[in-house]
């Protein structure tokens, strides 16, 4: 059965790394039908809309979407796109790869970030000149859904769960998140503990190898997973998945990298690893594993792009990965 994949390169290096990831998907061969769509700053300049209805509709109906990055319009694109695929979980693996300089080569973390509420779903207002507020939304339903996803994920990979929170201060909202996650934990035979997110940030820097799946509220997951990017060699290596029940959206964690965009030297690894997650989401586990292995071997043997200390282009790295497939 043909699966429909929507490809949204977006702006900046999205237009360089997403085509590279598409080549990799084509090389491993499931029966995919690709549709290209626009989103981001460039299409907004042309049409006034950062996320054209057509792109949203395509993502809402496809089996999976591969997105690059958007520039200034990132929030106007990515939040509605995540909503279009009804994703509740943002999954961000961060692992150290052989051959890539990382303070702790044993780092192999997966952040499971709540993707629908917290402060990013809150309503901001200016209640008086110079006085602003933000409402934070945490529900039992969303907390339960994300906790169950994290514990299932840990169970499948034979790992454990750390629940990140700040329930000592945000007693009501993070209190609900923590209590709900602990009730879900009771249903699983998976080891877990909880950690205050500020102390956890320090511990992740000092001994990342002691953690496995980190279950996070929305904002904490955003920040801690970028911190983890710094532990494993930079944003050029971090893939992510926005997972829903019926469809999902895959994207590198990085943005448009305006400092290198257009030079053809962006690291395509994060986009390719996102493509590997897409394959696995659709049940093509072998193809996903082949892509991950080819990217891992290329990181170890080179060529590598300048962010990893090499002098290769995106094309060189893509060719090396394709030759390993
Ligand atoms: P960024 O991720 O674009 O860049 C941060 C640094 O990492 C830069 O030095 C960049 O060159 C480097 N970098 C990132 N990805 C790389 C790759 N694949 N290969 C080599 N080097 C790479 O984050 P920044 O600078 O904070 O944001 C730039 C723009 O991207 C902004 O307009 C922001 O709004 C947007 N953005 C969009 C996101 C999205 O669409 N999901 C996510 C993050 C930022
Ligand atoms: Mg972020």
TrEMBL record:
This is Isocitrate/isopropylmalate dehydrogenase family protein. PANTHER family: DECARBOXYLATING DEHYDROGENASES-ISOCITRATE, ISOPROPYLMALATE, TARTRATE, ISOCITRATE DEHYDROGENASE [NAD] SUBUNIT ALPHA, MITOCHONDRIAL. GO terms for biological process: isocitrate metabolic process; tricarboxylic acid cycle. GO terms for molecular function: isocitrate dehydrogenase (NAD+) activity. Signal peptide: none annotated. Residues 4-321 form the Isopropylmalate dehydrogenase-like domain. The keyword Oxidoreductase applies. Keywords: Oxidoreductase. It comes from the Archaea.
